[in-house]
Fold this sequence. Notes:
Layout: E1 3-4, E2 10-11, H1 16-25, H2 29-41, H3 48-69, H4 80-89, H5 96-126
Antiparallel strand pairs: 1-2
Helix pairs in contact: 2-3, 2-5, 3-4, 3-5
Amino acid sequence: MLIRTLHGRLRPPLSFEAERSIIREMTTISGFRSQLFRAANEVHELTPLQAQRLLEGAVALIRCMREQTGMEPNTEAPDVTNVLLDIAASVPNRSEREIRNALLESADIIRLLTMILDSLDELGGSEGP
């Protein structure tokens, strides 16, 4: 059985070990962010399902991290998570460039939220009793 990549090429599916390796790497935030960057650089090798899952996972993580920071989305502009979900839902109709940009943007948002959470942790740890 072969699967079709976003570029339309056929390739064999990932082995069970390769899938497990990717899943293990995605269990940390930095590992998941690395996976997003790698996927963006190799977008032509992704299947539509892989691109969709990565974007949906990024949205879930962004929303969770936002909740932890107490940040509210900007109500004056479309929420980026909704835009990313729209792209994820329409991956087969999107260009490689659009998918690459969505993956990079989601990785960058996760990086920024990680920095915010780290700084909040430092502030909370430096306060005395």
